[in-house]
Design a protein that fits this description.
about 160 residues; mainly alpha; 6 helices; globular
């Protein structure tokens, strides 16, 4: 529970990722939660459990690969567990809010639910941008470009690979 409190400020754009504790167990728990929630949301959208499993597996692998390549190119692979945990933890926190919005969107298709979903996705983008900015010690614009590239590679890449 203590480690959760240390990672939680990242969701409010506070705290430094590289100063957070390195915990493989916490990483595994977050990765499992990330996979299960992603699978449930994907299964809700596609109604095909096998396709959903494959696509969420690809998203997870691409996420970890992107983080690894980004850190290798910056010669900071030593921080992989911390950075991967931070990005996945923040995505999990946002997902806790996205799940009820997705249910609301599925049931009612209210325009407000689309706006709220967009706002939550923007929050996730902002969190990833902030983590990348602190880890790589780059400016906001460069981290926004890398964050946009991250989302493109992981989600559109998984969609494209899933279509093969």
């Amino acid at each position: 529970m203590n480690i959760l409190r240390q990672y939680l400020p990242l969701c409010w754009l506070k705290g430094k990722t590289l100063r957070l504790p390195r915990s493989v167990d916490f990483f595994k728990q977050n990765l499992l939660f990330y996979f299960v929630v992603g699978y449930l949301m994907q299964a809700n959208m596609t109604d095909d459990p096998i396709e959903s499993f494959v696509e969420v597996s690809i998203v997870t692998i691409l996420t970890l690969m992107f983080i690894g390549v980004m850190l290798v190119l910056n010669r900071a692979l030593y921080a992989f567990i911390q950075v991967a945990t931070a990005i996945i933890f923040c995505s999990n926190c946002v997902a806790l809010f996205i799940v009820p919005v997705m249910i609301w969107l599925t049931v009612s298709e209210d325009i407000l639910s689309y706006y709220l979903l967009g706002l939550l996705l923007f929050w996730d983008f902002t969190l990833v941008t902030n983590i990348i900015r602190h880890v790589l010690a780059i400016n906001v614009y460069a981290s926004m470009v890398l964050s946009l590239f991250y989302f493109t590679v992981t989600y559109l890449g998984a969609f494209a690979l899933g279509q093969l």
